[in-house]
């Protein structure tokens, strides 16, 4: 993290993101926002652009959430309310959640500005991808990336792809766009696992059939497994979809160190996936890419994931380079010696994905 920061990348962050307070011992804790702030400060110290978010308006939230859901969250203002077994509010949560959705909007508006080749990165909490049209769940109050994707569709973009490499399935994002052919939702996730959705056969409905791509992976998947499913299925389908704007739901809880999940990824693996997706954005979307922070509950893994993926999108175009993790640059080596090679998990996943997606995308 010594190179000076390029001007085409903006980090969107607010010091308000610590003010959504969860009960003691809750993994989605204010320290996650402090970690984001550390990485943002390093970015600013290198001359990087930091942008303050605006709050999402009721109208912007209502593009993807029922009015009754927005009202229910608004009614928690000033109170600590348990919305379900693991999703709760504190007195400031409604304001902070509107700001978290707004950070994704601000990052999107940055990315769609002129000239092209712009990247916006929202460093926000609470996360969003479990929040459905009608309900909060899984630590999420409003679906930040969905609010942003819906906003992009009002700004003249016709095809949006959202790639979600958080270890959990983004049931909320899937549900919101399940019948919408303008939004290709792609998820890799541990399966079976919370929230229980995300089987390969969940492909969308009606006009949206074929515009949901689920890649469920057994626990223990490695950097190599993720790389293989990206190369064999996700990138080819993204290329055929030809997105005009690309979003990444950037969760870092598939890291081997994460206390919630059971995958074996490393920071270098997230860098590799992000590089592939940035290449897709360059090839199809004039380099316009929006990253929206999701989960990641080991603070050092979160810090390294955010910092290294920010570095890789800041480094610019990558096409033609080998799809390998860089041998250092900003990354600390893993403490243990876990193998990163692909396992049978990725081949198994691809079998199901090919069967489910072939009717829509042809042979992959
Ligand atoms: Zn997650």
Describe the 3D structure.
The strands form 2 sheets. Strands 2-1-5-10-9-6-7-8 form an 8-stranded parallel sheet, with helices on both faces. Strands 3-4 form a two-stranded antiparallel ribbon. Helix 7 packs parallel to helix 10. By secondary structure, it is α/β, with parallel strands linked by helices. It contains 10 helices and 10 strands. It has a single domain, classed as Arginase, Chain A, CATH 3.40.800. The protein has helices spanning 31-45, 58-62, 67-74, 93-111, 144-154, 171-176, 223-241, 267-284, 299-314, 344-361; strands at 9-12, 49-51, 82-84, 87-88, 119-122, 160-164, 183-190, 212-217, 245-250, 289-293. Mean pLDDT is 94; it is low at 319-337. The chain binds zinc ion. Zinc ion binds at residues 166-168, 251, 253, 294-295.
What's the structural domain tally? 1
Bound molecules: zinc ion
What strand line-up does the widest sheet have? 2-1-5-10-9-6-7-8
Distance between the termini: 37 Å
**Percentage of residues in helical conformation:** 25-40%
Structural class comes to alpha/beta
Amount of beta strand:
5-15%
Instruction: Tell me the Rg in angstroms.
Output: 18 Å
Per CATH, the superfamily is Histone deacetylase domain
Low-confidence stretches: 319-337
Major β-sheet profile: 8 strands, parallel
- Overall, the morphology is globular
Could you spell the SSE succession in H and E letters? EHEHHEEHEHEHEEHEHEHH
